[in-house]
Structures are given as C-alpha cells and as structure tokens.
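Fill in residues.
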C-alpha cells in the first residue's frame, strides 16, 4: 500500500489519514483508487448520453464507430460535453449569487432578522453603477432597488450585463466583436442547455464560443454579484490574522464547523457563536468556550471578514470529522461530499444540511431562510453545545499555522496607499515581474496541495506576486505562504516591495466566487495603463481543479484575456480541433488561451515565460 506522503504533502493530512485507516474510515482517495482505471471514453470527452438514442461513444483509435446514433462526431460530442460543464459551473456560482440578492431584498423589507447592510458605502457605489438614485434616500430603499435591478441581470431583457462596464472598453469591444457579450445570467446557461440538446448547435466552434459567453455571464455577472452583495451584507474584507489547518480544532472547546459556500448560513452561525448565554452553556457543559472553524469557501468567507480559523480544504473534509473533535458540521451547498454523513456516523458529530437545494445522506435537514436564520442558528449552536458531552477520544495531531486573509481589491489598493499606482510602478521597474492567480480545488488525481504550494513557491521565487482564492488559498496558507514572514521565500524584488508594504507575497483574496476580485484588480491595472487585460503581465492557474465551477472560472479568465494553466486535463482530448482552439485559436479571438500542465514546476516555467513575453510586448524592459 502507498505511504500517506504520496497522497498529501500536509502533515495534518498524513497523520489524519493514518487515524482514518485505524478507525476504518473510507476516504476520497480510497474511493478514487477503487474507480481505477477510469473510463477512457469519458476521460477523453468521447461518451455522450445527452439523448435516449444513446448512450454513444466514439472510438478514439478510429476502428470502431466515429459517429453517435444521431451522427454527432468527436468534435461535436467533446464541445457539447464541455459546454454543459461550463453551464453547470456558471449556474452554481450564479445561483449562489441569487440567494444573496434574495437576502438583500428581504433585508430591504425588514424581513430578515439578524442580517443587515454592513457596507453602506459599497451599497451606494454599486447602486450608482446600476443607475439607482442614492442621494437623500434611506439605505433599505436603495437596497431594495438594487436587489431588484440585480435580479433583472439574471433575466433576458438586456443586451449587456450591467457590471461588464467595469471591464476595460477594449475588452468589451473584443466581446462584442466575437459575439460573446453576456446578456443575461440565466439566459446564457439556459441557452447552453438548449444548444447542447440533440439537433441544435452542432458547430463545435459556435458551441465553444457560447461557452465563453456563458462563463462571462458568471464572471461578470453571477459570481460578481455574489461577491459584491456578500460585501454589502457582511462587510468588505480587510486584512486580518487567522490560523489554519486541523490544529485549529480545540480539545477543550465545543467545535463547530461550517462547510460549503454561501455566507448566508455561516454568518448567522458566526453571530450565534458570540452569544453569551450559549458560551455560558458551553462552560456549564465543561467546555472552555465555542470554537467556530471553516472548511472550503464558506470558511474562506468567514476567514476573510472575521479572521475565523480554517480547518482545511476540500480533500480534508472527511479527515476533519475523523478527529472526533467536531460536535457539529453545518453544510450549505457545493463541494460537500455525500460521504460525509457516513463518516460522521462513526463519531459523535452531528451533520446538518441547511439549504433547500442540497440534501445529503446521513444528515439532519434544518432549512435556513432569511426570516428564520437567526433563530435556527441559535437553536443549532445550542444543540452543538449539548453534543459536547457525547464526545469520545479526540485526535488533533498538529499545531495551527498563522496566516493573513482578507485581501479584497479595496484592501489591496488600501495597502498600496489608495491607488494601484505603486503596484504598477513596481511592475514597470521590474521589481515585481507580474502577477498570477492560483485558484481552484483539490483533486485526488494530484497529490493534495502539492500543485498549489509548489507553483506558488516557484512563482514568488521569480518575483511574481501571487493572489489565491478557494482551496488553493487554504493550501498556501497551511504551507505558511500567506503570512508576512513568507517574504523570505520571495525573489529580491518581490521581497523588497512586500516587505515595505508589510504584505505577504501570496495574497488571500477570498472564496471561489471572489475570483472576480482578481478580474476587477486586473481591470484596474489595465485601465490605469490605458490597455487591455490581455496585454498585462499576468496569468491564472488551477493546479488541482476538479469541479464544473472551476471550468466556468477558467473559461471566464481566458475570455477576459488571462492566459490560464490547468493542472488536471479536462475531458477534451478526444478532439484535436477543440484542443487546438482552446490552446491556440482563442489567442486570436480573446487574446488569451489555455494550457494544461499537471507538473507545477513546469507550469511555473510556462507562467514565467508568458509574463516575460507580455513585459517585452509592453516595452517594459527595453
Ligand atoms: Fe448518441 Fe447523439 Fe444522443 Fe449523444 S445526442 S446520446 S451522440 S444519439
């Protein structure tokens, strides 16, 4: 059998895998190995089950069938499958955004006790972008109008989404010219499902172009709304210290974990955990207090805004339960393995699902709605406290690592003295060669955290400023790279700049919907230089991606002009035409393309080369 070091680079992961083995807990890695070898047709994107004349598959060796029952060839099948992945990813983020807009609407009506407008300045700023009158008006009235206007962006009555105005004009012209300007958030996803129905769009190029538009409707629509409305409701993140890894769990406190994505639930749990009566109850039960920690993106949301500690990323979710130290885990939606209920049944951990959209085996369903959230959160935290006395033996094998989070665009420009100018000057002077985003998930196909951490280390060593979100941000935080002390790993120029600004060389920009913050920062840099995003010395990467959301994110990055390197290969190798378009042809349309490189050291070379080429084209080093 493999050594635990072959599964994960993290010491908490290795030690917990050993514990899980001795407790006979099945993990994601074991299930992955049980699936091997995975279906070669599906891996190449060559299987289709879109209609009931199928399922069909194309023989990649050219000996068996080259067409499905309907006549679709490899190019069409691969493009349709990819299109549906983008649609699912865009739908997930954008529906998350819609849930926040609904809370905003309820706050405006006074029907969401416990929720409030935490950032009225941002509310007014965005209301202005939607051309809503703000002068002399009450905050709830503005919030109500903004929620309504944002809902309109989800529909189909527009030619262009409202917030695309934030992209540089040159970029918007590119989208108009290519016919990929997003019109409505729901519209583009719905149209993708229509186009990929049997007998509709059978042009693999037009399908992929619509994929771009669908992804843009997420990046400049649903995800952007999710990120901005979260700031309005819960506060725009500012740099704050926090702790990460499984060591954030406490042996002598009630441990509550929030897992999932939408801060609508986790923020209410956060507030309930501050309740003096509940803290006193925990003390009565023999605990020293209530310790709230996060997993995955809802954890990132709480970490960025309140410095709440982070227990781990995607592949750690089963192992966190195996500590035996978690009284309750509350989940909302996305990236929550359906295995978790079974894992928890071996311990005293209470598993609670909270969204009307997401049910899981072995979890108790307690639905949160804006009107009952506050009360529900109080009840659940009380139940978690009562669960403390049922705790058995616990195993928390490591000490937590210190990190910094909360680098919103506002915080980054704040750290720079209010404008992106110092960053531009440092890039022009060559002290910082450029910037790269490392984003996305974990995937058992890649050694856990190895892709994220190695790539970040290589890039900062080469004076490239790194921004991180999602599970990637948690990986680099656990490796100590999101702390100011990490400048010791940076090249001399980056070290000088980050040292002077007292910021880490790897900036935690938030959750996966917060990838839009990277787009906004890139737009600000491009606008300040009077150029387009695709001219900047920047790049994106998703070294350990697994989810459909990551496909949508990577696509909106490329469609926005950002060269993006993927770790795991997407299921497209069945079509050379699709591969060529995505890795080369898109350069002529959007000014950027994809690359795939599972080895993070080689991915770093690709990114450094790209950044140096862009510098040369801008005449920065002449
Ligand atoms: Fe087969 Fe065509 Fe139906 Fe796909 S859409 S399952 S290729 S018949």
């Amino acid at each position: 059998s493999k050594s635990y070091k072959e599964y994960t680079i993290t010491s908490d992961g290795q030690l917990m895998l050993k514990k899980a083995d001795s407790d006979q807990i099945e993990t994601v890695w074991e299930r992955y190995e049980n699936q091997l070898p995975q279906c070669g047709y599906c891996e190449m994107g060559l299987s289709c089950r879109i209609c009931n004349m199928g399922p069909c598959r194309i023989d990649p060796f050219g000996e068996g069938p080259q067409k499905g029952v309907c006549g679709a060839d490899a190019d069409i099948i691969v493009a349709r499958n990819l299109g549906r992945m983008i649609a699912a990813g865009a739908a997930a983020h954008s529906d998350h955004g819609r849930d926040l807009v609904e809370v905003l609407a309820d706050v405006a009506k006074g029907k969401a006790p416990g929720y409030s407008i935490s950032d009225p300045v941002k509310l007014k700023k965005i209301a202005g972008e939607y051309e809503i009158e703000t002068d002399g008006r009450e905050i709830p009235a503005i919030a109500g109008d903004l929620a309504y206007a944002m809902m309109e962006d989800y529909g189909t009555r527009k030619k262009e989404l409202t917030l695309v105005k934030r992209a540089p004009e040159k970029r918007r012209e590119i989208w108009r010219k290519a016919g990929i300007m997003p019109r409505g958030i729901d519209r583009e996803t719905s149209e993708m499902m229509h186009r990929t129905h049997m007998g509709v769009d059978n042009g693999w190029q037009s399908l992929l172009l619509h994929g771009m538009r669908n992804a843009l409707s997420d990046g400049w629509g649903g995800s952007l709304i999710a990120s901005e409305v979260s700031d309005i409701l819960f506060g725009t993140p500012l740099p704050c210290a926090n702790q990460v890894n499984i060591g954030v769990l406490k042996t002598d406190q009630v441990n509550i974990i929030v897992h999932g994505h939408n801060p609508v639930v986790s923020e209410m749990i956060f507030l309930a955990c501050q309740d003096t009566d509940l803290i006193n109850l925990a003390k009565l039960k023999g605990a020293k207090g209530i310790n709230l920690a996060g997993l995955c993106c809802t954890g990132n949301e709480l970490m960025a805004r309140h410095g709440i500690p982070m227990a781990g990323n995607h592949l750690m979710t089963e192992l966190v339960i195996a500590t035996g130290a978690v009284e309750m885990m509350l989940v909302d939606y996305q990236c929550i393995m359906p295995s978790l209920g079974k894992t928890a049944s071996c311990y005293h951990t209470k598993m609670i699902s909270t969204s009307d959209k997401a049910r899981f085996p072995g979890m108790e369903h307690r639905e949160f709605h804006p009107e009952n959230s506050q009360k529900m959160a109080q009840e659940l935290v009380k139940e978690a406290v009562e669960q403390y006395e049922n705790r058995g033996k616990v195993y928390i094998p490591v000490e937590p690592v210190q990190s910094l989070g909360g680098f919103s665009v506002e915080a980054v420009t704040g750290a720079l003295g209010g404008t992106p100018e110092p960053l531009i000057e440092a890039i022009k002077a060559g002290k910082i060669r450029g910037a790269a985003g490392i984003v996305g998930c974990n995937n058992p196909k890649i050694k856990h955290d190895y892709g994220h951490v190695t790539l970040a280390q290589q890039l900062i060593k080469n004076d490239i400023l790194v921004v991180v979100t999602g599970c990637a941000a948690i990986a680099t935080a656990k490796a100590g790279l999101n702390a100011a002390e990490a400048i010791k790993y940076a090249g001399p120029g980056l070290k000088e700049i980050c040292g002077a600004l007292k910021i880490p060389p790897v900036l935690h920009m938030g959750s996966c919907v917060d990838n839009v913050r990277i787009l906004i920062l890139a737009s600000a840099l491009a606008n300040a230089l009077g150029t387009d995003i695709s001219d900047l010395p920047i790049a994106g990467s998703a070294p350990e991606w697994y989810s459909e959301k990551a496909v949508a994110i990577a696509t909106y990055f490329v469609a926005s002009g950002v060269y993006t390197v993927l770790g795991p290969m997407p299921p497209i190798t069945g079509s050379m035409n699709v591969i060529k378009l995505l890795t080369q042809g898109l350069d002529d349309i959007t000014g950027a393309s994809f690359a795939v490189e599972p080895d993070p050291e080689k991915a770093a070379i690709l990114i450094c080369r790209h950044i140096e080429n862009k510098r040369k084209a801008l005449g920065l080093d002449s």
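The mean pLDDT is 96.
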